[in-house]
Amino acid sequence: MSYLHPRRPVARAPAETLALVNLCASLAALSRRQQPTSLARRLYEDSWRRLLAGEGTRATMLATLAEALAATRLGDLDSAGLARLGVAAPAAAQARLRAFATAAMPVEAELRLALRLQLPGLPAPALALPDVLAVQAERPPGAALGESLAEHSLRLALLAALLATETGAAAEVMFLGALAQPLPMALPELPDALAAEVAAARAALAVPGSAAARAMALALAGGPSLLPVSLYAA
After folding, report:
1. Which of 54, 57, 80, 98 lies 20 to 30 angstroms, CA to CA, from 194?
2. 66 in Cβ contact with 116 (< 8 Å)
3. Domain assignment present for 164
């Protein structure tokens, strides 16, 4: 069964769980580095550009999570950042692949392989974001430390997609539902098909006790060891 659909949760040894928690912390840190804007904000905007261009939720989730995993080992540097430092494209690609391979070790094997195939990936389409999305980059989500709503949403989307395998949820549903969490329920600025997909993902996350709801709880907590085992056990 594909990891993109509900399945049995992954069973992990304590050391594997600790490695996953550390990876979650590294991903979360991407939203708090502002040089001059965080990678989380750039990935948030690129994710919506991919979705609006019709790349699909699965492809968008894989491209975004793969980029983020590599960046956790490269000091928040993506392809553009490496180029600005004068790193030649072949060397940058190899550096990103090595960084990804190291960072992705705690990721479930099937998902890890699918993510690996995204690097080096194509850049996001150059599209203007609708106002309902662009405004998220300027609004703080409350008590979160220095994050805009865009950064907050991207952080949750990354963690929710990564932690979906812990509960058996569908990774792409988790990614889209978390990415759209702070947006208004009515999204007339989005294409009808994408708006319907967003609504379905949100509905999946809202079912109490479901695999999706448990995965979202893990993402909100920051990792699997920060909640009781019973919350995400089968």
Report:
1. 80
2. yes
3. yes
